[in-house]
Amino acid sequence: MNNSERAGFSRDIRDIFSIPVIVAALGYFVDIYDLILFGIVRVQSLKDIGVEPSEILNQGIFLLDMQMGGMLLGGFLWGIIGDKKGRLKILFGSIFLYSAANIANAYVESTSGYAVWRFIAGIGLAGELGAGVTLVLESLPGGLRGYGTTIVATVGVMGAILANYIAKTFDWRMAYLIGGGLGMALLIMRIGVYESGMYKQIESSTISKGNFFMLFTNRERFLKYMKSIMIGLPIWFCVGILILLSPEFAKALNVSGTVSAGEAVTACYIGLAVGDFSSGFLSQYLSCRRKVVLLFLIFTSAAAAGYFMLGGVSSGFFYMFCGFIGFAVGYWALFITIAAEQFGTNIRATVASTVPNIIRGTLIPITAAFQFAKGYAGILRAGAIVGIVCLLIAFYAYYHLEETFDKDLDYVETN
């Protein structure tokens, strides 16, 4: 490597590990901690506030739906603010809201109070990832964007591991307080982050910014948006149904030993960290997003099918397979990167915030379909049916997916 090449390599490393990337990664780390914490402390927290054992699954799904409903609403709210007022406005506002809500979660005494604060926390949690990804994509050179979002996702998903450790070490109420404290500390760190250069170029212009309805005024743009959403359906089916409800599935599968949601989540998110890292770097190595998405959709299909064949295995093997599921759905960062790269600067934050949160919000109809099917077919067949539908939709969306590697992002959408 000559001096010029070494200088270029050093410059690339500085860009990849720049302040926007580091702060976005730490922000997503806290985001995932708070997002996953409820799934880990679900059983114990509901028992402590007086929910009957027979109602823990139903009440848990209800509260999860409230959280995801908040994220669905928050995705639209923060995305529009991000395009109208700037990426940094999302970062500060969303962190403050979810931190305050998680502190309040530590003091709930009823399911109704729990539901209100999970909904508010969901609104806050919705802004972090979209703003971080948008800021990173608009701050890095085209050939390095994938590396930046890969680092954000890989560091971020490790927050689930910390959430499980904290939940095992402390009471569930203290776990919520720690999450809120981490968010407030992150808020202070964000002070030194600068606004996206691409956004500043259009900030004072008369160009329509943050107009969500622009996604529906053009047929091609609308279809592109809907397919960006559909390709992520299997991710939250696997995490929201197979992993978060793993104690109930393990019982139906006659898994030997006790299976806890916390350990299943930890195993899944370790796999997810490896998967996000692998998919992101593979897409950079191949200079192609589409091939990698297809590969991971195939992995996800195999993992989901294998899950329902784990009858009679040990809890240790079950956790190991949860890790494989996490790896298989590790195209999360890639999927959001592709979505954001397909749209102009004036609606990019709207897309980057709404797409992942609509996917999270689809957990509501997914759980509703699962609950309905479970009443007729039992928990295992219901899970398999819903999983097949999610995967078929994702493969359809993949077929029409646009290649966005190294695409020039410095443009705006017009009516």
TrEMBL record:
Stretches that traverse the bilayer: 21-41, 61-81, 88-108, 114-137, 144-167, 173-193, 229-246, 292-310, 316-340, 379-399
Residues annotated as domain Major facilitator superfamily (MFS) profile: 20-415
Keyword field contains Membrane: yes
Designated name of the protein: MFS transporter
Keywords in alphabetical order: Membrane, Transmembrane, Transmembrane helix
Record Gene3D superfamilies: MFS general substrate transporter like domains
PANTHER family with a match to the protein in the record: CARBOXYLIC ACID TRANSPORTER PROTEIN HOMOLOG
Membrane topology annotation: Multi-pass membrane protein
Cellular compartment(s): Membrane
Lineage, top ranks: Bacteria, Pseudomonadati, Nitrospirota, Nitrospiria, Nitrospirales
Coiled-coil stretches: none
